[in-house]
Design goal:
By secondary structure, the protein is an alpha/beta fold. Helix content is 26%, strand content 12%. It has two domains: 10-76, no CATH class; 102-316, Alpha-Beta Horseshoe (Leucine-rich repeat, LRR (right-handed beta-alpha superhelix)). The chain has helices spanning 10-37, 40-55, 60-63, 73-88, 92-97, 231-234, 334-354, and strands at residues 64-65, 68-69, 102-106, 125-129, 148-150, 171-173, 194-196, 218-220, 241-243, 264-266, 287-291, 310-314, 361-362. It has an eleven-stranded parallel beta sheet with strand order 3-4-5-6-7-8-9-10-11-12-13, with no helix packed on it. It has a two-stranded antiparallel ribbon with strand order 1-2. It is elongated, with a radius of gyration of 32 Å. 25% of the residues are buried. It comes from Rhinopithecus roxellana (Golden snub-nosed monkey). This is Leucine-rich repeat-containing protein 2. InterPro entries: Leu-rich_rpt, Leu-rich_rpt_4, Leu-rich_rpt_typical-subtyp, LRR_dom_sf, LRR_domain-containing.
């Protein structure tokens, strides 16, 4: 028995499918209009834009204003052009430093580190300055190859305990930030050679655990609120340079001679009235800078011209007493003032080192800075 075949008129089938196609196209058009009017498409566009910005390391503050996201793609092009311009205008010496193992960031538009940084754990150096970044993330412990953390002039208020995991760290510069304490875990960075915590203004002590840093040769804790030389510093047996100027010191410990390797000792802008005789035991000391306004007693041998020591007694002329001629003029911040003062002293000391003919004992060196 043969198969039964149902035969339709082809025009009927064609008309049926054309009707269905028209209905489907009408539905698609209606759906497109609905999506266009809804917020879903806008949200999707914003999400994709934010993802692209994060991938390129652009901080949120640049594209998000008052909670609204500017999805103009020209913004991305503008930022990329500015980045290329800044890169081409870098100083030659900074350009030499750039490599696949060095991360550099600068500019007040940065309020947080780019998300992409977390994946670059091969980096050996961070150079971050003049930003509004406040927090160093805990994932810093992943950067086991880190040797230099150069973080001056930011808004950093806290260092994570995880910084102690950086066993290869050689230099830490957190000067002119907003730190009030240093994590004791930093004492685990036993290869640390240079520590700069100057200009934080509110720093009052260093944790005892930093006594473990036996390789440190340079410590700068100037422009803070130290009332005494930290005990941990006295235990840094290889220390060669110590700057504790512009603090609240009124005396020095009698065992200051424990720093047998000390070569440069900066004490100016404190309220020292005398220098202990144990200073004479610092046989390698070649530069000593103090403020002479309050000194009434010091070992005379420090001023002996037969020694290699350059003893500099500064007669301070505090900037605090300077009056602004224009009452409407805004005085620079304390932190900026301290930074400027430090740069002046740095230039003076460098010049002093290079000039062999400088007298070993200078009675008056006055700095008068009119703001």
């Amino acid at each position: 028995m043969g198969h039964k075949v149902v035969v339709f008129d082809i025009s009927v089938i064609r008309a049926l499918w054309e009707t269905r196609v028209k209905k489907h196209k009408a539905w698609q058009k209606k759906e497109a209009e609905r999506l266009e009017k809804s917020a879903l498409e806008k949200i999707k566009e914003e999400w994709n834009f934010v993802a692209e910005c994060r991938r390129k390391g652009i901080p949120q503050a640049v594209y998000c204003k008052n909670g609204f996201i500017d999805t103009n793609m020209r913004l991305l092009d503008k930022i990329e052009r500015n980045a290329l311009t800044r890169q081409s205008s870098l100083p030659k010496d900074r350009g030499k430093r750039s490599s696949a193992f060095v991360f550099e960031l600068s500019g007040e538009h940065w309020t947080e580190l780019p998300d992409s940084l977390k994946e670059q754990t091969h980096l050996k150096e961070w150079h971050i300055s003049n930003t509004l970044i406040q927090i160093i993330p805990t994932y810093i412990e992943l950067f086991q190859a880190m040797r230099i953390l150069d973080l001056p002039k930011n808004q950093i208020s806290h260092l994570p305990a995880e910084i102690g995991c950086l066993k290869n760290l050689k230099e830490l510069n957190v000067s002119f930030n907003h730190l009030k304490s240093i994590p004791p875990e930093l004492g685990d960075c036993e290869n640390l050679d240079r520590l700069d915590c100057s200009g934080n203004l509110e720093l009052m002590e260093l944790p005892f655990e930093l006594s473990n840093l036996k390789q440190v040769t340079f410590v700068d804790i100037s422009a803070n609120k130290f009332s005494s030389v930290p005990i941990c510093v006295l235990r840094m047996s290889n220390l060669q340079w110590l700057d504790i100027s512009n603090n609240n010191l009124i005396d020095l410990p009698q065992d200051i001679d424990r720093l047998e390797e000390l070569q440069s000792f900066l004490l100016y802008k404190n309220k020292l009235t005398y220098l202990p005789y144990s200073m004479l035991n610092l046989k390698k000391l070649t530069l000593l800078v103090v403020s002479g306004d309050h000194l009434v007693e010091l070992p005379t041998a420090l001023c002996d011209s037969s020694t290699p020591l350059k003893f500099v007694s500064l007669m301070d002329n505090p900037i605090d007493n300077a009056q602004c001629e224009d009452g409407d003029e805004i005085m620079e911040s304390e932190r900026d003032r301290q930074h400027f003062d430090k740069e002046v002293m740095k230039a003076y000391i460098e010049d002093l080192k290079e000039r062999e003919s400088v007298p070993c004992y200078t009675t008056k060196v006055s700095f008068s800075l009119q703001l």
